Amino acid sequence: MSALPARADAVVIGGGVIGTSAAYHLAEAGVNTVLLERGSLGGGASAHTAGMVRTYFPGDPHTGQMAVRSLNAYQDFARHTAAPLALKRLGFLVLFTDEQQVADFEAGHQAQQAAGVQVGLISAREASGLNPLINERAVLAAAWSPEAYHVDGLDIVRGYAAAARNHGARLFTHTPVTCIDDDNTVHTPQGDIKADSIVCTAGPWSGEVASMASVDLPMRPHVIEMLFTDVPPSPRPDLPMTMHAASGLRIRSWKDRILLAMGAPKAGETREAWLGRIAGHLGTLFPALDGIGLHRAWSGDFDASPNNTAFIGEHPTRRFLYAAGFTGAGLCQAPAAGEKLRDLLMAK
C-alpha cells in the first residue's frame, strides 16, 4: 500500500456505497480526493443488506425522490463507471391490514407521485396475483411499486471505487481514523493527512467519527438480522419484495428459499420470543410458510437518524460534511447522496 499523501482537498471517511459514491463524484469534478476505510471496501453496512434498490418509502416522499434520482443513475451506471449492474426487477408490495394504513397511503399518494415515485393502491386479490403466498383474507389492500430491483451492493461499491480511482482518487483500506484535529488533520495508524474538507460517510460509525471533529450527529445505530427459511414446498424465485406495514416484516425470494427481516429482538425480548412473533406474522399473512424453519442468514449494524431519514449536510463553522442515517436504505440513495455531497463541497 502506498503512503498517505500529506494533504487532500477532500478526505472521505468510510468506504461503503455512500463513501465510494462520494469519492467518485468528487474526483470526477476535479477534487483531489482521498478515501479512508477502516476495513475492506463495502465491508460494513453495505455488505449486510437485502440487496434491493427501490423508490417507494411509505410516508417518506423525500427519501423516494432521492431514490428515484439514484435509480436513474444506476440504470446509467455502466456509462459512467464502465461497470454494468445486474439489476433484476422484482417490484415492491406493502400489505395494509387496517383502514388507517390505507387512508395514510391515499393521503400521501400525491406527494409520492410529485417525487417521481411509481406506486399505486391495489386490491388484496391483485396483491396475491403478484405474490401467491399472500393470504387475501388477512389483507385489506396493498401498495404496489414496480420500481424495485435486486442488485449486489458490492458491485456498486466496486464500480464506484474503480471509477473514482480512474479520476485520480486514492483509496486506502484497513486505515482507521483515530483522531481529527481542529485544523482537519486526520490521524491514522498509517500516517496523517491534512484535509481542506472532511466528508463523513462512515455508516454506523459516523457519530463516532463526527465526535472526533467535535461535531454532533444524533445517530442511533441498531442491529438488523436477516433470516432464511427452509426451502418452501413450492419455491418461487420471482417473488416481489413484500412488506407488512404494521410489523415491518419483509420477505423476498432468495434462490430457492425466502429471505426475511423484521429488525432484531427488542430490549428485554428473547430471541425465541422474537422468532415467535415473526412466525406468527408469517402464518397469518403467508399460510404456506406457517411453521417453516427459520435460520440466521446474517446480521449487521445500520446507521439510523432519530426519524429514520438520512441527513446530508455540513457543519456551519468548519469544513466537515456528512451523509449518514440511511437506516439500511443506503443502496437506494447512494448516487444522489454522492451528488449532494459534491455540490455542497463545490459550493464552499
Automatic annotation (TrEMBL):
<keyword id="KW-0560">Oxidoreductase</keyword>
<dbReference type="InterPro" id="IPR006076">
    <property type="entry name" value="FAD-dep_OxRdtase"/>
</dbReference>
<dbReference type="InterPro" id="IPR036188">
    <property type="entry name" value="FAD/NAD-bd_sf"/>
</dbReference>
<feature type="domain" description="FAD dependent oxidoreductase">
    <location>
        <begin position="9"/>
        <end position="343"/>
    </location>
</feature>
<dbReference type="Pfam" id="PF01266">
    <property type="entry name" value="DAO"/>
</dbReference>
<protein>
    <submittedName>
        <fullName>FAD-binding oxidoreductase</fullName>
    </submittedName>
</protein>
